[in-house]
Amino acid sequence: MTDTRVDEIASTLRFRTILHVDMDAFYAAVEQRDDPRLRGKPVIVGGPSRRGVVLAASYEVRAFGVRSAMSMAEALRRAPHAIVVPPRRDRYEQASHQAFAIFRRYTPLVEPLSLDEAFLDVTASRALFGDAESIARAIKRQVREEVGLTASAGVAPCKFAAKIASDLGKPDGLVTVPTDGVASFLAPLPVERMWGVGPKTAPKMRALGYASIGDFARATESALEEALGSWGIEVGRLARGDDDRDVIPNAPARSIGAEQTYEDDLVGAEAIVPTLLAHARRVASRLARANLWASTIALKVKYADFVLRTRRKTLPQPVQDTDAIHHAAVELLERIPLEARRVRLTGVSASGITDGRSSLELFPDVAAEKRRKLEEVTGLITDRYGNENAITRAMLIASRRP
Fold first, then answer.
1. Could you read off the pLDDT of 325-363 as tens digits, one per residue?
2. Distances from the Cα of 127 to the Cαs of 156, 176, 179, in angstroms?
3. Is 270 among the residues known to form the active site?
4. Given pLDDT bands bounded at 50, 70 and 90, which one contains residue 69?
5. What is the pLDDT, as a whole number, of residue 273?
6. List 31, 60, 117, 388, catalytic entry
7. What is the full DSSP assignment across 161-226?
8. What Å distances lie between residue 295 and 107, 190, 320, CA to CA?
9. How confident is the model at residue 10 (pLDDT cuts 50, 70, 90)?
């Protein structure tokens, strides 16, 4: 390689280049892809219960103000003509796997944020595949051709700006932030675009005089601390485009959870315990598929009056199986006041996640190893028949309501 070429590559690598790739209306788009009858129609992915929440909304139904995380009752009030389809996680995971395989053709530095979005560090990839915008266009094209879905991409020198850029271009968009223009790009954007500033926080910020990200950038650290606490200093840094966070490939999930809102309220532990088994099974399945282990189990119970109670427990050893997670959840249930209170939602989550046991055991737990193998076999059967209920627990069959 000539000295001139070496100098060119070195010059290219002086500036970091981050992509944020986000699949458009992912769950709803998968449903529309798989069922031609849904294409161009207002589609909501979620449970049939009006007390449930919207997991995803197609762009056709977003025009009526429907958004993910909205209550199903509110969504159907806004769009009574919408088509509600139940979620099929196996299909979403399959599409996600295909898309991420495309990302990794261009760089090994891929940091998943969820099934449908990721950061990619393509700094070193530019010498092989061209500039970052060309890489983003190639990824978008291959996702469309091979997965049958559209994706939006943001290109920037840092994570924060790349993520905002991808959001601004949706759907099927591509927005590039100049290497020396991050602060200028961010400054005019409304305060709601700032990481961590949601619908409840934004009005408070506006009342304090922060209407745009540029207002955060110009504020002093003391003013931001007074408005936002210790988090305010980080907000100021991000607003000025000062974000040196690395793309961390294969970062383990912070938590994995499952929950459900019930059409009819549950009363008493006898009615709740089987729901915890169903949640534990889903959490264990996701842990086992990713070869992850969890050391902390949390239980969520929401009463009919919307009061929320949570309890958590750190286990002596990380776990991966349904029985261990369910056992911990049942123990936590004993710490939540039930009496005659009606319960509308239950949930179980696992955190403290690692990609292996945190410590070696001198005397391995034979029973735990059997449970792990059972989880593995259950997963194989589920994959074989494409249905998470292909094999289930007797307690769940007995507890199902007509």
1. 999 999 999 999 998 899 999 999 998 888 754 433 433
2. 17, 18, 17
3. no
4. confident
5. 93
6. 117
7. HHHHHHHHT-SS-EEE--TT-HHHHHTTSBGGGSTT--TTHHHHHHHTT--BHHHHHHS-HHHHHH
8. 31, 40, 9
9. very low
